[in-house]
Amino acid sequence: AQSVAQPEDQVNVAEGNPLTVKCTYSVSGNPYLFWYVQYPNRGLQFLLKYITGDNLVKGSYGFEAEFNKSQTSFHLKKPSALVSDSALYFCAVRGISSGSARQLTFGSGTQLTVLP
Amino acid sequence: KAGVTQTPRYLIKTRGQQVTLSCSPISGHRSVSWYQQTPGQGLQFLFEYFSETQRNKGNFPGRFSGRQFSNSRSEMNVSTLELGDSALYLCASRAVAKNIQYFGAGTRLSVL
User: Fold this and answer.
1) Which chain B residue has the Cα nearest residue A48?
2) Which residues contact A48 (CB under 8 A, 6 or more apart)?
3) Which residue of A has its CA nearest to B49?
4) Average pLDDT for runs of 10 along chain A of length 116
């Protein structure tokens, strides 16, 4: 079964500093990887995805993520954090085999707080 | 283009009742998936519908069911509600042969 681990429940960073939100995954075959963000009382907003190609993926709002196959990681990064980036971030994986593996499996989420 | 629309946004029910939640996908999207989000269990996949057929189902009891209509709108039904069913229920739609799921704002269900 596929799985996603987000080892940090909470990440605090000062405004203007770089931020990293960690994600590791386990899946059979090549993964499809995603990052979503959730603001209070809202649904999930898509940030970026990795399907194939360049290991560094750029997404919305200045976010990027680096795919590392050997470490099975897909960490989310941003060079300079904004207070408005404070939210709950989810990493997700989708397998390419049939059946339930084609569904998104989410990590437990990381609460990012950017301090002014 | 309008996003995924879920109604109602908030719902309060009592144990033993049943509830129906509605989801209108993005225009042109034929795949609709449902997820349950709780503080304890996180985001869990319920089921996916495509062209009115259930394609995949998560590990939930039979009290949870769904359907999809010819216009791709979907409904989710929970019968005999339990306190543990209190959650944010999220619907997501996806275009054919595309990988990104787009989520609605969710329906917050409280079971008293």
Assistant:
1) B100
2) A34, A35, A57, A58, A59, A60, A63, A64, A65, A76
3) A103
4) 94 98 92 94 92 91 95 97 97 78 88 97
